[in-house]
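Please check what follows.
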Amino acid sequence: MIGFSGYVARTITKLERRRPNPFRMPGFVLPSAKRRCRKWDTGCRYWMLLLGGILLFITASTARSQEVSEYRLKVAFLYNFITYTYWPDQPNHYLTVCIHGVDPFGENLQYLHDKKINDADIVIRHTKNTAELSDCQVVFISKPALKNLADILDQVSGKPILTVSDSPGLSRQDVAISMVIRDGKIIFDANIKVAQSAGLQLSSELLRFAHEVYQ
């Protein structure tokens, strides 16, 4: 996408000067940054969410010196989705993220390898058969796998599994969270009803940044 990565890098640089320590507290935005954002437009609040995820994976110097790929950003979003989702029985040792179908992330998944959710290590699995999905806590449904969407949703139905995709409109079709690029930005929709039917709770801190929330 023309200008996408450059726009992201410029925005990171701009926000970086206003928010020197993004790790001071576990939320997306520091209280002082929240106060500043009230004076900015909605784009500010959007990028503060994005920045919180990106800075977990890339340094500021990297962001300034090279382009940030679409799927590196989507990995950052995926991490934030997981972080702000609550399972009925939080995994004690590891949390399994399954990439179902063709993997669009490639080497960008390496940024999740050393990350934890609470005390649980994130483990990445690649699945081809829907029967493998029962052991996942998160299922990312790749675009080629959408031809079997009904089978996938049937397999995870009633289980504490967060479903995520990067195809538009899927949050209206029983997928909990769907990402899409619009006007050069990654936005996401969330379906509270789908999450609740899986026994999951999506944090209000996450939902306030969603483009659309379905209930």
